[in-house]
Amino acid sequence: MPSEPPAEAPLLRFALPDGRPATLLLGEASTVLSVEDALVSSWDLAGRPYALVRETGTYRRGLDGGMLWKREATADGPRLRRRLSAAEGEPIVEAARREAEAALVILRGSDRPGPQGSAVQRLRTVVAMDGLSLREDAARFLAASGPVGILPPDQYLALVVRVTEGCSWNACGFCRLYRDVPFRWKRPDELGAHLAALREYFGPSIARRRSVFLGDANALCLAHDRLLPLVEAVAAQLPGAPLYSFLDVWTGQRKTAAEWRDYAALGLRRVYVGLETGDPGLLAWLEKPGSPQHAVDLVGALHEAGIAAGVIVLLGAGGERFADAHMARTAEALTAMGLGAEDLVYFSEYVDDPGLAYGRRAAGAPNLQPLSTARCAELRQSILAGVRPADPSRPPRSATYDIREFVY
After folding, report:
1. Residue 6 gets which letter from DSSP?
2. Are strands 21-26 and 268-276 parallel, antiparallel or unpaired?
3. Contact 345, 308 (CB under 8 A)
4. How far apart are alpha carbons 33 and 25 in whole angstroms?
5. pLDDT for 131-155, tens place per residue?
């Protein structure tokens, strides 16, 4: 799958009919229109808008039509974010489409040589995606894919292939992502139809997808004899694409390093493991099965097979009651994993939800209240300071994982 547009992607500079200067970038996998260097609109090769910068903030549109609005922190206020329905986002999308329509008027009537023909073709595709077309397109996406619950931040541009649906445990006290999705796996014929539907839906816009993510929550939990033929089918249909997936620690540690090598040979590059915490006491409060040692053992088997790990640490849950133990035991667990430069440590701040089991139990218990963002930042730094990488010259990377900003 091709990467994002190269630096040498063709650029066209011109003025819109109202005189505003504009720049059109014809990327390998996207079309980007900038107006007055302030309004920036990005579409995939099928004409679907996915990122829009307006005076009011930044908008990211998902394939299901929903949008995320963000405004960075300023001297006047903190960073803001809000989910918008497809209907709420339509005026923003339509304004960008009209700008593309204005650019098309200029370029279609111009005698510019070179990439003008490609620009006209790209813009026609964008302009054709009006409100009705985008609503129909969102319905086609959901029919081909179904809802995509969550991805790790480095996989937001993956092609999600739902080998399984839902979460096999689906009872952690702090998570509701898959509560309404019964867990099931696809039969080989179902998976083949699913892959065909995805390829038909994405068409040329699949160029924007950098990798393949095997969904949903923990697809790799399936027994080896059931899982391997499914992953082989994905690899055969999407040859050369690197594969990634989530996995829970209590079933993941059942596979041997030899079995993991089978998946590495098919292109599995990294597995994302929800450690959450190295403190068994806090893990029990979160109602998550397994143990920190299970996570350590799983990462060891992955490393032995040549597969990297993405380890997810939860910050803020457990309040001050568990803060010190969480900090110390998590650093110990991460150290025991022998993480290196190919691995990732993600820090995810707990999002309070009074409707879930943990939120109900924590309510009214002052020392269990979620920690502030500033306190979470302190814990993150303390955990990282306590980790001893296997090779100090090649430590694992760390990053923020904010589930409130996920858009697919």
Report:
1. P
2. unpaired
3. no
4. 6
5. 999 999 999 999 999 999 999 999 9
* Edge-to-edge strand list for the sheet holding 308-315: 158-162, 211-215, 243-247, 268-276, 308-315, 344-349, 397-400
Identify the bridge partners of residue 86 per DSSP, sorted by sequence position: none
Residue carrying the six token digits 């923003």: 92
Q: 353: how many CB neighbours lie within 10 A of its CB?
A: 15
Taking the alpha carbons at both ends of the chain, their separation in whole angstroms is 17
Instruction: Answer positive or negative: Cα dihedral of 193, 271, 347, 76.
Output: negative
User: What single string gives the DSSP state of each residue in 89-120?
Assistant: HHHHHHHHHHHHHHHHHHHHT----STHHHHH
Q: What is the pLDDT of residues 267-301, one digit of tens each?
A: 999 999 999 999 999 999 998 989 999 999 999 99
User: What domains, with CATH codes, occur in the chain?
Assistant: 11-134 (no CATH), 146-405 (3.20.20.70)
Cα separation, 75 vs 332, whole angstroms:
39
Neighbours of 350 (CB within 10 A): 22
CA-to-CA separations, 399 to 22, 242, 319, 340, 380, in angstroms, rounded: 35, 21, 22, 14, 10
Half-sphere exposure of 256 (CA within 13 A, CB side): 3
Specify the pTM: 0.93
248's CB contacts (< 8 A; 6+ apart) are 168, 169, 217, 218, 221, 273, 274, 289, 290
